[in-house]
Amino acid sequence: MCLLLTAILHFIHGMADPVLMSLSASHVSSFRRHFPVLLVSVALFVLPVVLSFTLWHHYALNTWLFAVTAFCVELCLKVVVSLTVYGLFMVDGFSNILWEKLDDYVYYVRSTGNIIEFLFGVIMFGNGAYTMMFELGSKIRACMMCLHAYFNIYLQAKNGWKTFINRRTAVKKINSLPEVRGDQLRNIEDVCAICYQEFASSARLTPCHHYFHALCLRKWLYIQDTCPMCHQRVYVEDEGRDRAAFSNNNGGYAAPQDGAAADPPAQGENQHGQPVAELLPNGAAGGTHAAGGPPGLDELVEDNDSIEYDEDEWGTQNGSTPIEEEYINDDTDSTED
Q1: 192, 208, 216, 227: which one is catalytic?
Q2: pTM for the full model?
């Protein structure tokens, strides 16, 4: 009965925690909306403490009492973590400046709670294995232990490790981007495109020359590795970063040009510096390269003369419509008349 009660209290906390986080993150100032959720959270903390205190005064220590106590301590820990994160978000909501370390503090609090919950899950698995082997073994208990090992141990460890890897990768990408401070930061005269707040102390510059808060961009990189403005890759190699096109947050665009790309090609040459033979409609080569050009050019002209076109292809090559034979015959007949 006590195990069922603690399971129900865990379920209630699973429903109250998202509501509590939503109210704190949305910066709702109405006390009437915060009070019911806070009251439920306090009750979820007090009831397990009272239950554990009562059971320890009326029963001797055994595997059953140990399991109930572990569930109660785990529930109290979850409530403390939820209220701590709630308090951090509320402090950030009442603050007038951007709290860049908020995401770090929330991650540290949740990670500490998840690690302790994982340890409790391992302890509970050991307690169940001991009970099944030496006290009361049954197929139902074995199935419950397998479910507990999968959901509360394996999945929790897998999700925690995935979060840690994603966070470390995002921090590595952020640290690879140049940081803008001082006079350069004041000359931006723009806001972060993610949170729409001004740059107070620093900003990170992406390879496509867009400015963001480091905290905002790191949260974005948890989801995808592209710029929120132009969808170019944020973490690129040095060579690609030097030649990448750039723009500011207002939509301006500029493409990098080196010396070879900036100089226009000379007359009679294409963009690769090779001579170009201008072909006249009758197939002869015109310009200075027709008479005194290199031998390879004469062969190119002869090859162009040897190409046969039908009427449709000839009209397409010259940018005009194909000449119809009936129209020519009509003109010839009218001339003879």
Answers
A1: 192
A2: 0.60
